[in-house]
Every structure is written in structure tokens, then in C-alpha cells.
Design brief:
The chain is of the alpha/beta class. It has 6 helices and 12 strands.
Length: 235
Amino acid sequence: MKKVYPDAAAALAGIVKDGMTIMAGGFGLCGIPDKLIEAIRDSGAKNLTFVSNNAGIDGAGLGILLETRQISKMISSYVGENKLFAQQYLAGELELEFTPQGTLAERIRAGGAGIPAFFTKTGVGTKIAEGKEEREFDGERYIMERGIFADISIVHAWKGDTEGNLVYRKTARNFNPMMATASRFTVAQVENLVEAGEIDPDHMHTPGIFVKRIVHIADPVKRIEQRTTRPRTAA
């Protein structure tokens, strides 16, 4: 099966529809599938639920889908860099399911592993626990969290081959690998595309069986959320 597509729009053609749940990989602006996000914007699909560590920033990442009001709900652990997100949420125009970061990662991993729910101490006795089943194990209180399984996952990899085997680099390994397993249809944008057999099997992070489509995005723009510098001191 041919997995490599000429551009992001072609890689998502025919699969993005209104009302879908979509996982978007990355951590902050690191390792985000930016070209695939742009293609979703251009598709015009609306009423989308996005599962992501964050909501991007104003004008970048998932922020561009907030501008077009294509996102109706976010399942996230951090949204503090996006003023438009705050405005829409406070105006009641955007639903938010706030989840502790470790719990979010485990909910996604569980979804990919076919685990419908699990118990965790995180959030016990706080607003996070409201409405959730609670049990006691070995004298300690735990709350039940549901696994997440999406319609589509969009991920960014540093290297991939034509069969869909993927390698992530550094911070981009946050969320991308687990999201690639936790949906019905995974699409990957890849910085360095090589032929099948050129990646050492011991170095693969995502096996190609999880990846349905690939688009080669060479030299992607790598943004920094908050650039902090200081003057050089005299030697």
C-alpha cells in the first residue's frame, strides 16, 4: 500500500470530517504537525475535538484553528500561551476538558493499548475528581480516568521510511509516539524521508503498522514559544 502523499492536503483528503476527535502531537511548539494542522484548517471541517498537550499560541499550532473557530472542544493539560483560547473559553464558545499532563499521557497510551480505563492518585480530592468513580486500594484513594481513542492522529517525526516506521527526536517524543497508536487513522509529517529498510529496527519509535499516510515536510519552521536571552558578559 502506497503511504507517501505529495502534500499535507492530499494526505488528509477524504478523511477529515465535521465532529471528529483528532489527536495532535508535540509539546508546546516542539514536534507539532504544523503542515497537517494547516491542511485541517483549509479543509473547513468544524466542530472538532482536539486532544493535545496544549492549544498552540496565537497564530501558530492549533491557534490557527481557534482563529477559524473550527475547534469546539479541547482535551489538554496546558493552555496558558494562547489569549484567543482564553477569550473563547471565558465566553462559553469553547469547551475544555482539563487533564493533568501525566494523566493525559496515560489516557492516550491506554487508548492505544485497548485499555478503557485506569485508576490514578492524581487529582484525588480536587476538582479533577468531580464526577469520577473513586476506589480505595491498599488504604489509598484513587480516581478512575478513561482512555482516549481518536478518529485521527496527526504526528510529526524527525525521520520516517516509506513504510511508515517513525523516529522522533528529543522533546518531540513527548506525545507523538503514543498518539500514533491511539486512533483509527494516523497521518505523519516527516522531516527526513528514507526508503524502507534504511532505519535500524532497534531505533524505531513507531512501527509502520500504525501509520496510514505520510507526507514529507523538509526543513520545517521550528518556532520558540518564549525566546529568553541575556547580554553576553565580558570574558
